Structures are given as C-alpha cells and as structure tokens.
Description:
By secondary structure, the protein is mainly alpha-helical. Helices cover about 85% and strands about 0% of the residues.
Amino acid sequence: xxxxxxxxxxxxxxxxxxxxxxxxxxxxxxxxxxxxxxxxxxxxxxxxxxxxxxxxxxxxxxxxxxxxxxxxxxxxxxxxxxxxxxxxxxxxxxxxxxxxxxxxxxxxxxxxxxxxxxxxxxxxxxxxxxxxxxxxxxxxxxxxxxxxxxxxxxxxxxxxxxxxxxxxxxxxxxxxxxxxxxxxxxxxxxxxxxxxxxxxxxxxxxxxxxxxxxxxxxxxxxxxxxxxxxxxxxxxxxxxxxxxxxxxxxxxxxxxxxxxxxxxxxxxxxxxxxxxxxxxxxxxxxxxxxx
Length: 291
C-alpha cells in the first residue's frame, strides 16, 4: 500500500513537471508568435507609410510638371540605375565613405579617451565642458568655412565628421560610465579584481548600451555633416562634388539620385555598425553572439 502511494506520488510529480514544461513552452511559443506578428505589422506599416509618401511625391511631380523643379520618384530611380554601372559613381562612393567613416572612427576613439579622462580627473571635466559645448552649439556651416582655412578640401569631410560626432559620443560614454553600479564597483575594489575583469564585469556592460544609442545618432550626423563639407569644399571625386555639379547644371534627377545614395549609405553603415556592436555587447555580457 505504501509502495503504491509512492508510485502514485512519483507519477503525479512527473505529470506536474511535464505539464509545467509544456505550459512554459506554449507560453514561450505564443510570445514568439506575438513578437513575430508585431514585427510583421510594423514592417507593413512602414511599407505603407513609404508607399503613401512616394505617391504624394509622384502626385506633386505630376502637378508641377517641370522636372527641373521636381522630378518624380520613378525618374529619380531611373537616374540612379543609370549611375550604378559607371566606375566614377563607385569611385565617388568610396572616396566619400572612406573619409566620413574615418572621421567617425576618430570621433569614437577620441571621445572614449576624453570621457574616461573627464570621469577620472575633475580638472579635465572642467576644461573639456566649454569646448564640447562650443562644438555642439556652433553651426556646421561655420565650422566648414573656418576649417577651409586650415585643411585641404579632400580632408575637410574627415575633420567636420569628427567634430560633429565628438560631443555626441563623449556624452554617451560619460552617461554609460556614470550609470555603472556603485556596489559592483565597491566589490571590485574589495576583491582587487584586475583591470581586464573590471572592464568586462562592470564598465563595458554599463557603457555599451549608452554608447550604442550615441553611435546610432552620431552615424547619421557624420554623414550629413561630411557631405555638407564636401558640397562647400568641393574635393574632386566626392559625392558632395557630384551634388554641386548636379545643382549648377539643373540635373534635378541626378540630384535626387545622389541624395538616395547618401540616405542608403548612411542607413546601411548604421545597421552594419550596430549589428557588429550588438555582437560585441552579447559577447561581453556572456551571451552567445547571434551575428
């Protein structure tokens, strides 16, 4: 009798465990389905919004009736397709992309160094604050005109991209550093953890989320400011030079086509960089990177 009761108890426990596991799996599957449905819903909403504004653009172009003033999206895409096979097109893309991304890379490196220095030494924080505020408040056009006195047109986009992203990334890194858990920091001091383990356990998990957000903003800023610098500095073989030539020759279709290229490059590099940064973040926090 006692043996039968034990057997029944074991079977009840097995049944309950199986029920619990299956229920958890069902909830997880339902949440995954809801997440997928929400992603599909957002995709179609964005697609519908894009189609709506393209239709508005097409109607506006038809109402104007003058391609010199406003080309249709169809004509802009046709012009872009005509540019794609040309070697000069890819040379311009490579020229501008290399310099703008170099400015962004310099901004990342310098902002991290300055943020760490400002966090470690109060004097550095006091000295850097007015300079970065000045950089943040000064119009891009003013920087471009002033910088033309100091650098060649070919290097102008590097300097301007660097200056525009520096305050954004500096602020993001400082925010991340200040959000580090004080209790964890105290534990690292008590147990005298080496610098590498402190970085991995405390600093990087605190800084990387804020840094990611800053990079998302800074990448868009550096492309806009870098191309603006090229339009004013007119370095040969750049996207900004192509925009200026399209403007003075009233090639509105080419102007819109190059604008498409800038938007696609900016969005593409942002997605790629953030994907790589997410892989680093997952590796640092101990999760398996899903690259």
